[in-house]
Amino acid sequence: MSQIIVQVEHLHLSYKNVKAVQDVSFSIAEGQVLAVIGANGSGKTSTIECVEGLRKPDSGSVLVFGKEPMLHRGEIYKKIGIQLQETEYPAKIQVEELCRLYAGFYERPADWEGLLLQMNLAEKRKRTVSKLSGGEKQRLSVLLALMGRPKLLILDELTTGLDPEVRQNMWETFRAIRENGVAILLVSHYLDEVEALADRMLYLEKGKQQFFGTQEEFRQWAKARIAPEQLREADTLEKLYLQIVPKTTGITMEGIL
Fold first, then answer.
1. What residue ranges define each of the domains in the chain, with the CATH number in brackets?
2. This prediction's pTM
């Protein structure tokens, strides 16, 4: 039986009068990929920050490797790799210098030279971070998240700014990582990415949990909430999601043209 890596039960978190997370529960086992989806402001980041031990819940429980992340952050972080959507590195440091620096943080670091090849960054090893493109910086942040051979990976907008070929290669990399028993917590707005990688999905809406389950269960759940005349065109996860997610006010061209 697979070990449970993350267990969240009845999570609540507020910022003054704003209820950011309301009664959210989910789990991730080793070798599973959980995708957290929802519109901006749905509570995705707040939920993940509780898992990372960066925020203390108002109520409910969060266990990572069986321990509370707020109380055991140092121990837990030895087993976690975190890739953020935006990360700042020293501008003048070279890619290989940054890799050596991160490798020094761990007793048994990953083969960073092999990761440079895998992430298609080997030719950029002498380049300073400030000279990298947005996509290259994104790949570098993923590489650094893998440096400690993590048992849990937390990925925020994994392939933002990457071209289609690089995205596909990145997906293959994370499929291989999952097969080695690593649990992955993925926050993404790209439903094609979710469809390609996720075993389970957590859908949040205005801080509230609307769905937690497998992709197939999500499809059935979403289809039950879509009008029959709209269902014919909802043949992908993205199209299903767009039918159920709350609509925002669109931009009109009145007064512009």
1. 1-79+151-158+181-245 (3.40.50.300)
2. 0.88
